[in-house]
Amino acid sequence: MSYESPIRELLVTGGKTAGDVTADICRPLEGKPTKLWWLGFTISVICLGILVYTLALTSFIGLGMWGINKTVGWAWDITNFVWWVGIGHAGTLISAILLLFRQKWRMSINRSAEAMTIFAVMCAAIFPLFHMGRVWIGPVWALPLPNAFGSLWVNFNSPLLWDVFAISTYFSVSLLFWYLGMIPDIATIRDRASTPIRKFMYRFFSMGWNGSARNWARYEVVSLILAGVSTPLVLSVHTIVSMDFATSVIPGWHTTIFPPYFVAGAIFSGFGMVLTLLVIARKVLKLEAYITIGHLDAMCRVLLLTGSMVGLAYITEFFIAWYSGVEYERYAFLNRMAGPYWWAYWSMMTCNVISPQLFWVKKWRRNPNFIFFMSIVVNIGMWFERFVIIVTSLHRDYLPSSWVMYSPTPTEIGIFIGTLGLFFTCFFLFARFLPVINMSEVKSILPHSHNNEAESVHQPEVVTH
Amino acid sequence: MAHVETEHLTEERYSMTSKTRNILFAVIGIGLILTIIGIFQVKGAGAEHAAEHAALVSNGHEAGLTAEHHGPSWTARVWANLLLNSWYTLIIAVCGVFFIAVNYAANAGWASGLKRIPESFGAYLPIGLLFILIVIIGGKQDLYHWAHDGIMDPDSPNFDAVLKTKEWFLNPVFYYVVIPGILLAFFLFHRMFRKFSLNEDRIGGVKFFNKSVAWSGPFIFIFAFGFSLCAWMLIMSIDSHWFSTIYSIYNFAISFVAGLAAMTMFALFLKGQGYLSFINKEHIHDLGKFMFAFSIFWTYIWISQYLLIWYANLPEETEYFYKRLDGNGGQFQFQFWLNLFLCFGFPFLGLMTRNAKRNTTWLYIVGTIILVGHWNDVYLMIMPGAVGEMAGLGLLELGMPVFFAGLFIYVVLQAFEKAPTFPLQHPYLQESVHHDVGP
Predict the structure, then answer these.
(1) How far apart are CA A306 and CA A300, in angstroms?
(2) What is the pLDDT at residue A29?
């Protein structure tokens, strides 16, 4: 039994009933797609085509199609990899960590955030896979499989291998969590389906859900276990991504703050992308009563918090680089700020640290247009963060004769745009065929199912001695 | 869901029983006596050590070395202990203010009934600041290698070119002005939150609640930066040449988990005395979860630092762990591994089940282990660098923590007496009263 203070904002507005919830959330996937949907979907599919084309170029011709070179061996590809993996983190944070913290506002955004996680991890995986060169055989070499080369094994000491395990586990668990959470809702859609093909498909994917007490009991047990598993996972994934860099001895990469700093940055970028998607989705799918201004406000606070954490990490890194007195460390950070890539550094600082500070103002945290703009700024800023860390630390190495500049080729840019295409294609399909909000959970937080209706509010009486 | 009645609560005030007071005075007294005996013991050992060195010098064994032998003297051990206990209690106290601010910022209701406990922690802050001032003024030469004469002077035989590069931070302005200023700011923030809370009791309404929420964000912001500077200056600079970017977060992790353990034990104690009757197993369970989770968080930070330094194997970084593991013939090795057990292994296994987090006696045990463990943790941060081979675990190391524990508990309970035991007008109080963690 829980009590809710009358001063708390309602999580579902507009006096919705349980029936309204089902109707509102099923509507977009039961009617005909709108023109806007077709437009967005078409653009995304075209971008997806670019992905196929540029990846084919890379595979047939080789990595020479990319702008990387001997000094800058990691650049655009790994930047995108880390950017996409980071974006995925908000989904798991919302579904697992906020669940542990009993944050009920997560219930109307967790479904789409989890979907985003899965699509983002798919996009991320493309980059290291294709960076291996021979993509038809590389992934096999990345796995610890017995092989015909005698004692040739993967390097278990390498954080890159840990990454293979971390990302694949993360993807599997996120997919499972997302799909299991959706089964009761898929069953609802199945029961409402009117055409045979819809009936068949939703029946197949609802796995015989009948809403019995036994079903629910098992569902809840599995959900809790998966939440427990996901919580350390979300931290470990970006920790290991950070170790791809931090275990090295490269100034600018090797620093002990990297694990928590990368996790904070990942959550920051993930919430940026969640806001980009949801500010539009709530409008287009008419879900303003479920994803309220209060939800946007809460997410902006998370942006403010994690943006400031990232800012603290930047300043700590710089401070310690200077404090260390190590000239290589000092140079690496000076080079970031004032070297040839100064514009990337200052874009990162502006987008990630300075601009989120605007969210101290409550009015701006509650203005969807402003939030949408800021979410794009955050996405850009976090992309630059990875670019700055990777490229500026590499491009001037210990041997000044090998100092070079890096710039992306059209193929690399094409792959990046292509992954955006893949991401949005998946998201458009998701919004078209699956419920974007967890209906069964949202029904449990409807205002009338609580005691906080106006008439039942009693302020505690004060008795002083 | 059924309608939940708001509970009718009346104001309740705590008054320290004479028994509690006498026990605390006794603890403080015993701690003080042990500390004084300990100091004399350490002094005696120091004299022996010096005599040994003198003998070696006269034999010509260490002639070259001794000319500039700045090995820590016995006073270093005393100062290092004072720093250890001052810093440890101070970060526990500041955690109280931080915990309140986090609850406001996160809009959390469940802990509002417990709020007066962390609020009372803040009363220790001026005393903690006083001890820190004593340490930084009195113990400067003994604790901080960078503060020795001539270290920053190129013409001096003691000149250290590496430390010279740190002079922009390791200087009297930061040391005497900025750091105490930050600690003072923490205290002023505490006073402000306290004032809001007491005014809320008196006047009611959501005005003071809203003010507290509005100031909690800025406090957390200032806390994050200020706490980092304090950790770097007061603790990290002991190992003057060494540096680690995660160090401030590591100190924060200690502060938070030790603060939570202290809060939990205060809550259990006050409940045992018959106060805070609405605080039940549900709240205790959540505090247990917090202790569990932040013990893991501490371990995460610990392993991030250790693993990355071990992996890269750069001499200027591994120096820190070398001193703690193999230095002086493994002098600190046992404590180093014990630390992982006390701060991670024990709370991790001990708080895993639901029943463990709801069992009063067991939580006292785990809380004590966590507090002792992190005392050892801070010991390992300070002693190898400041005292080295002269370090040890004697009466001094037993007496001083006992003294500080007694003092801390006394100050907190005294502050707890000065206000009602729970904030009657807090808008989330009823949420706390009806708190339920679920199955």
Answers:
(1) 10
(2) 84
Which phi and psi (to 5°) does residue B13 adopt?
Answer: -125, 145
C-alpha B319/C-alpha B242 separation (Å) is: 7
Q: By C-alpha distance, which of B431, B419, B377 is closest to B261? A: B377
What token pair was written down for A387? 């670019």
Domain containing B75 equals 24-45+71-428
The pTM assigned to this predicted structure is: 0.92
Handedness of CA B334, B336, B342, B344 (dihedral sign): negative
Residue B59's pLDDT is what? Answer: 57
Mean pLDDT calculated for residue range A425-443: 90
Nearest by CB to A259, from B2, B296, B304: name it.
B304
**Tell me: the pLDDT tens digits for B391-408?**
889 899 999 999 999 999
Could B425 and A323 be called an inter-chain contact, meaning their C-beta atoms sit closer than 8 Å? no
Check if CATH label 1.20.1630.10 holds for domain A18-143+154-443: yes
Q: Cα separations (Å) of B386 from A335, B75, B143, B378? A: 35, 11, 5, 12
Q: Are the C-beta atoms of residues B118 and B95 closer than 8 Å to each other?
A: yes
Q: Classify residue B4: in a domain, yes or no.
A: no
ipTM: 0.91
How far apart CA B270 and CA B14 sit, in angstroms, is 9
Position B265: which residue type? M
Which of A312, A317, A461 minimises the CB distance to B225? A312
**CB neighbours of residue A249 within 10 Å:** 12
Distance from CA of B57 to the nearest CA of A (A): 35
Q: How far is residue B194's CA from residue B116's CA, in Å, rounded to a whole number?
A: 9
When divided into structural domains, chain B yields a total of 1
DSSP helix/strand/coil, B278: coil
Choose among B225, B301, B427: nearest Cβ to A7.
B427
* Per-residue pLDDT tens over the stretch A353-383: 999 999 999 999 999 999 999 999 999 999 9
CB within 8 Å of B24: residues ≥ 6 apart: B406, B409, B410, B413
Q: A58-109 pLDDT, tens per residue?
A: 999 989 999 999 999 999 999 999 999 999 888 888 888 888 888 888 888 8
In a domain, B176, yes or no: yes
Q: Which residues of B touch A8 (CB under 8 A)?
A: 107
Please check whether residue B222 lies inside any domain of the structure: yes
Measure the CA–CA gap between A326 and A324, rounded to whole angstroms.
5
Give Cα B159 to chain centroid, integer Å: 34
Please give the pLDDT value at position A284: 87
A interface mutation test: which of B243, B247, B298, B306 has the most A CBs within 10 A?
Answer: B243
Is B433 inside any structural domain?
no
Nearest CA-CA partner of B121 in B104, B98, B101, B96: B96
Tell how far CA B279 is from the center of its chain: 26
Nearest by CB to residue B314, choosing from A8, A249, A308, is: A249
What is the rounded distance in angstroms from the CA atom of residue B351 to the CA atom of residue B346?
8
Q: Each residue of A206-259: pLDDT tens digit?
A: 998 988 999 999 998 888 888 888 888 888 999 999 999 999 999 999 999 999
Look at the block and give the residue holding tokens 């703690």. B324
Query: From A308, which residue of chain B is nearest by alpha-carbon distance?
Result: B221
- Mean pLDDT of all residues in A314-334: 92
Domain boundaries, chain A: 18-143+154-443
Does the beta-carbon distance from A323 to B243 stay under 8 Å? yes
Instruction: Write the DSSP string, B230-273.
Output: HIIIIIGGGSTT---TTHHHHHHHHHHHHHHHHHHHHHHHHHHT
Chain B interface, mutation test: which of A225, A255, A257, A262, most B Cβ atoms within 10 Å? A257
Rounded CA gap, B243 and A326, in Å? 10
Cβ <8 Å between A360 and B166: no
A257 contact B CB<8A: yes
